[in-house]
Amino acid sequence: MQQLPEIFPLILFYGWSGILIAAAVGVITARNPVHSVLLLVLCFVISAAIWLLLRAEFLAVALVLVYVGAVMVLLLFVVMMLDINVERMREGLTRYAPLGVVVGLLLAAQLSSVWWLRQSGLEIAAPEDSLVFEQGNTQALGTLLYTEHLYAFEIAGYILLLAIVGAITLTLRRRRGLRVQKVSEQVAVRPANRVRLVRMPAEKDE
Amino acid sequence: MADLLANWLGFLPPEAIGALIDLLAVLAVTVVVILCVAYATYMERKVIGFMQLRQGPNRVGFRGLLQPFADVLKLLVKEIVIPGRANRWLFLTAPVLSLVPALAAWAVVPLFPGFAVADLNAGLLYLLAMTSLGIYGIILAGWASNSKYALLGAMRSAAQMVAYEIAMGFALVGVLMAAGSLNLGVIVEKQAGGVANWFILPLLPLFLVYFISGVAETNRAPFDVAEGESEIVAGFHVEYGGATFAMFFLAEYANMILIATLTAVLFLGGWESPFAGLVGRQWAVVGILAAPGLFWLAAKTFLFLFVFLWLRATFPRYRYDQIMRLGWKVFIPVTLVWIGVEAVMSVLQVGPFK
Question: Any CB–CB contact under 8 A between A166 and chain B?
Answer without folding.
Answer: no
